[in-house]
Amino acid sequence: MTEWVFSESVFDGASLGPASLCIEGGQIVEVTPLARRGAEISGAIVPGFLDLQVNGGGGVLLNAEPSRLSEICAAHRRFGTVGIMPTVITDAPNVLTAVTDAIIAAKEDVLGLHIEGPHIAMSKRGTHSAEHVRPMDDNTIAAVKRLRDAGVTVLLTLAPEIVGEAAIADLMAMGVIVSLGHSDATAEEAEAGFAAGAQAVTHLFNAMSPMTHRAAGLAGVAMERAPFVGLIADGIHVEDRVLKIAVRATQGRIFFVSDAMPTVGGPDQFDLYGTTIRVEDGRLVNAEGALAGAHTTMAEGVARLIGLGEPPKDVLHMAITNPAALIGRSDLASLVGRSVEDVIVLNHDWVVNGPLASFVGH
Q1: For labeling, which of 56, 188, 233, 286 is most exposed (least CB within 10 Å)?
Q2: 268 catalytic, yes or no?
Q3: Which CATH code, of 2.30.40.10, 3.40.630.10, 3.40.30.10, 3.40.50.300, is assigned to 2-46+336-359?
């Protein structure tokens, strides 16, 4: 069965405007800009969001229960995120081993694995366990090698001043995407990390040396030269005015992440390192009231930034095109060849209405 649909706002990974889509067998086979064919769909048709930093969802924390990975994926898909990179944070070596096993077994269902820590600066560890922060070790290298041998994309967040340029270059040679974060690097150390091959920074401004008027820090160097800049756009981790400054400074290099914890699509509290983390006024906090991950979605970040006045096309780049480019999956920013289950419809307030599958085939 062949079906055509039309929308005044279709995002194909590069442009946003009116277009018609040809659907055959539940798959988009053609996008015709400006044409008007078939039933009109109210709202924007866009590829589903891609999230490269997901600690959990649906009541499941990846570190604690890697065998329940499918539940994390399902929780985020409800909010328009069709591709996630599960994220294992600083923990005991056996946790990374168990997560590696789970990711390899489910590699067709995820974008890869984000290993955030444990090779980070103690002073910028945030909610990461001090007990498990450590220098680069054989356990991480072995896990990375297993993942890469299995064809799994690996994003590894580390502190350049802890790991060093040679180790970053070695990881790059293994095909790892290195991101600088949880770091107290000087501007010079940050520059050296990027020179060695680092491709990104992890959640800009959070858990990194700040930019001041006499010291650029990792934050300043990242805005100037990082190929890609991760950012949590919940208005909590980065204040709205600073968020808008970062968008201007980075000139199209930002990719959104949620940094989501199990509370997204799940209960309002969970256990992390033996401590209860709870949602309080929209913030995820520990017993001391300090931030401990995020209770947000990619969809909320998109709607929020558009609501702040940023052009919708630019914001969609941050949620779809840029994360796809960072992991070498430009196909995921395209509509042609995609299942209608992996394409979403946003209403006129840029809020997720559901998958395109819900609007066609009736």
Answers
A1: 188
A2: no
A3: 2.30.40.10
